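Q: Here's a chain of 188 amino acids. Please give me its 3D structure as tokens.
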Amino acid sequence: MGVLGIDFGSRRLGLAISDDEQRIAFPLAPLESRGPAADLVHLRSLVQERGVERIVVGLPLGLDGSRGAQAEATERFAETLRRELGLPVDLLDERFSSREAERALEAGGRRGRKKKKAVIDSVAATVTLRTYLERRAAGGASGRPAPRRRSQASCCCSRERPGRSGGPCSPPTRRPRNASSSCPTAAP
């Protein structure tokens, strides 16, 4: 059973899914929003199809930790998911996930703001989900911050290899042979 990561936005939802062992986060195609009811139908289908047992939604706090209008909308969205899907929904601070996603895409050779916009949300959801999985693996369950350290959790874009440091969601200098060509940050 996996965990679904969501980067909530008014225009689209970035989506990511974990493997069954909840160690690796994989990006999914972003969902162009067609309104709350249609989005919920799509998410319910995705949850059933993928065997999701928990959802984590990125909470866009201000740099000072304050909650703005988007954070409040995200909290309402998370509560709707909790109520309508009957699954646990955790909120996780995602202050820097979109910027981290942009950097990963640039490092992977993706240029052009319009092309990147379609992928940034799902990579941001992947970064948020990866962070959540790492914290849970380190003993910080339920979204509680845990000491920052390397763990077995990673996203599909970074391969842990001895002697190399691949940044979060950034492709290695050389792609491993087993790297998926569908990875949004992989160089073409």
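Q: Can you summarize the key feature?
A: The mean pLDDT is 74.
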